[in-house]
């Protein structure tokens, strides 16, 4: 009598919008986040030193959670409804229809100093770190000034193999929504020719003599932003004179907490992490009694959206 070897498949979504199929020799509930990350990194040809720059996350429209290497991703997916009740302010009907996926993204605890060294020697790690940074820029998770947005837009077009001559006069405006964050687009809504002019000028400056690779340049610009390395989650805050709470995005790093107004994408506060105690509460417009649930920002299992 022969025993058939168990084979299970776990799909992991990457920040370049592709996914990796990982086949395990045992039931998926027994595969740890560390094992899954290492398997994905091997397939992507990321060096062993580069593995630590990444982590396995469970993500959905309502919540994103970075896992410790010892956590079990598929088992936690089965517990998603319970995790939503613990970490997300949401309705029961929303929680029941929310579906999580497993992703590999940047490890928020990975030191920036190590990343600077890593990307010089590991082009694959650099590629995926850049893909994630670009996603955060274009979705407004990294609120940036207009001029930096124009620089990054030019770099994005260059990385996609575009040249200035690829766009006849007046046509960069037609792709502006693909290369600029929504808040930058809104601020420049009445001056599309200014967008065209600035992006085109930055594209001209990115010639072959530019030191470093294009993705290295893109990351180096993102490193200047305090929000780089943040994990995100949604929240709301009370405002004097307002009946309803203001929706906010909260970014957490091992060192600080940043709060943005989601309507304007403007920074409202930047706080030292050691001076903040966090609690998940239901806002004024959902429950005036404000039922509190404690959370721990220093844990590797933190709500990040």
Keywords:
11 helices, 4-stranded antiparallel β-sheet, 305 residues, alpha+beta
Give a structural overview.
The protein is α+β, with helices and mostly antiparallel strands. It contains eleven helices and eleven strands. The protein has helices at 33-44, 73-78, 80-87, 92-97, 112-121, 123-138, 146-159, 176-179, 182-187, 192-205, 214-223, and strands at 8-13, 19-24, 54-59, 64-66, 101-106, 231-237, 246-252, 256-261, 267-272, 279-281, 292-294. The strands form four sheets. Strands 6-7-8-9 form a four-stranded antiparallel sheet, with no helix packed on it. The protein has a three-stranded antiparallel sheet with strand order 4-3-5. A hairpin with a 5-residue loop joins strand 1 (8-13) and strand 2 (19-24). Helix 5 (112-121) packs across helix 6 and helix 7 runs antiparallel to helix 11 (214-223). It is globular.
Q: What topology does this entry show?
A:
Blueprint: E1 8-13, E2 19-24, H1 33-44, E3 54-59, E4 64-66, H2 73-78, H3 80-87, H4 92-97, E5 101-106, H5 112-121, H6 123-138, H7 146-159, H8 176-179, H9 182-187, H10 192-205, H11 214-223, E6 231-237, E7 246-252, E8 256-261, E9 267-272, E10 279-281, E11 292-294
**What is the percentage of strand-forming residues?**
15-25%
Uncertain residue ranges: 285-305
Largest sheet, order of strands side by side? 6-7-8-9
Shape verdict: globular
Q: In which range does the helix fraction lie? A: 25-40%
Structural class: alpha+beta
Q: Any idea what the radius of gyration is?
A: 21 Å
Tally of helical runs: 11
Total count of strands: 11
Q: H/E order of the elements?
A: EEHEEHHHEHHHHHHHEEEEEE
- Taking the alpha carbons of the first and last residues, their distance comes to 50 Å
Average pLDDT confidence is 85
The main pleated sheet reads as: 4 strands, antiparallel
């Amino acid at each position: 009598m022969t025993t058939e070897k168990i084979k299970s498949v776990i799909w992991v979504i990457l920040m370049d919008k592709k996914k990796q199929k990982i086949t395990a020799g045992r039931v998926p509930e027994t595969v740890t986040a560390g094992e899954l990350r290492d398997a994905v990194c091997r397939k992507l040809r990321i060096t062993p030193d580069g593995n630590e720059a990444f982590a396995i996350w469970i993500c959905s429209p309502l919540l994103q959670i970075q896992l410790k290497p010892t956590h079990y991703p598929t088992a936690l997916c089965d517990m998603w409804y319970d995790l939503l009740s613990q970490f997300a302010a949401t309705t029961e009907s929303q929680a029941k229809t929310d579906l999580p996926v497993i992703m590999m993204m940047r490890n928020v605890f990975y030191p920036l100093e190590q990343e600077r060294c890593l990307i010089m020697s590991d082009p694959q790690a650099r590629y995926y770190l850049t893909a994630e940074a670009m996603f955060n820029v274009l979705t407004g998770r990294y609120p940036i000034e207009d001029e930096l947005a124009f620089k990054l837009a030019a770099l994005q077009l260059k990385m996609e193999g575009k040249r200035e001559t690829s766009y006849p006069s007046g046509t960069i405006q037609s792709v502006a929504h693909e290369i600029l964050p929504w808040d930058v687009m809104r601020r420049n809504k009445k001056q599309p020719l200014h967008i065209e002019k600035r992006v085109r000028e930055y594209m001209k400056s990115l010639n072959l003599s530019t030191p470093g690779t294009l993705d290295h340049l893109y990351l180096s610009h993102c490193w200047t932003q305090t929000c780089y390395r943040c994990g995100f989650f949604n929240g709301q805050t009370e405002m004097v004179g307002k009946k309803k709470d203001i929706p906010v995005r909260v970014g957490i790093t091992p060192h600080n907490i940043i709060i943005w107004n989601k309507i304007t994408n403007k920074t409202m506060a930047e706080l030292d992490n050691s001076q903040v105690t966090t609690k998940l509460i239901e806002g004024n417009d959902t429950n005036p009694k404000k039922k509190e649930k404690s959370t721990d920002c220093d844990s590797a299992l933190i709500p990040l959206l």
